[in-house]
Amino acid sequence: MIVAQSQIDTAQDALRALVFNQSAADFWTTRIEPTDLPAFQPVTVDLDGAVRNALQMRTDLVEARKSLEESDINIKYFRNQTLPDVTASFDYGLTGLGGTQFVRGTGFPGPIIGQTQRSFGSVLGDLFGNQFPNWTLGLNISYPLGRSQQEASLARAQLQSSQAVTQLKNAELQVVTQVRNVARQVQTNAKLVDSTRASRTLAEQRLDAEQKKLAAGTSTNFLVFQAQRDLAQARNNELNAILAYDRSVVDLETVQQAPIGGTGAAVTTTTTTGAGTAVGTSGTTTTTTSTGTTASGFGGTQ
What we know:
The protein is an alpha+beta fold. The protein has helices at 2-19, 47-57, 59-81, 120-128, 149-216, 221-255; strands spanning 85-94, 99-104, 112-118, 133-142, 266-272, 277-283.
């Protein structure tokens, strides 16, 4: 009873941290008393649908596919950088002169024999009349000789993209395996619930029979206490089996959306940029739950 009370207090602290407000004055003094037992509601497992949902909606797979798209864009960019660089330019301009203009005579330089004044309006007239046009046409072609940095970057980006594709395929295989394992665990836990429920029913019948024998004088208090102990253990086993089933159903829903917290297979995605390489990792895992049942009247573990 001392150990059981300690386990109750520990479970209350864990649930209190998840449910209640930590800033409340009665946070640590509030006691949690369950009023209902967990109900067993079997669900039909659509394995193919769960696998399709996981392959489409798993956050780690979506992230890996986005990284592959980014890698394809980088490959196109680096491939474009390896092409010859051809630059064509064309400049066209207009010129107008205004202000004081000196008139020179013959010779070099001739003497100034007079001057004329050109107003701002005359300058605008030269511009709009296209009196003094000038233009320039240029063509520049550059091609790298030998191995270039752009070719090395392209080869690195292609290699990393190929690795990312392989890693994505492996990750998809691991995700399918995880979904199948969790779905199988749901079915196994459902059978365990039926098994523990049958054991609990047999324990109730045995206790009833021992009580009737005790009333008739053909049994002892020890056998009745033993039947009561076995019934309590059978009820605990049934409760644990139901809880394990509920957790496995939640895990089945979770594994279709994101990796289950813990350790497991990792999905590594690599992204290549012009400045370097960035690597990200997101973990995936599979959770397995098992429940034991006690055979009534024998004291052993089945």
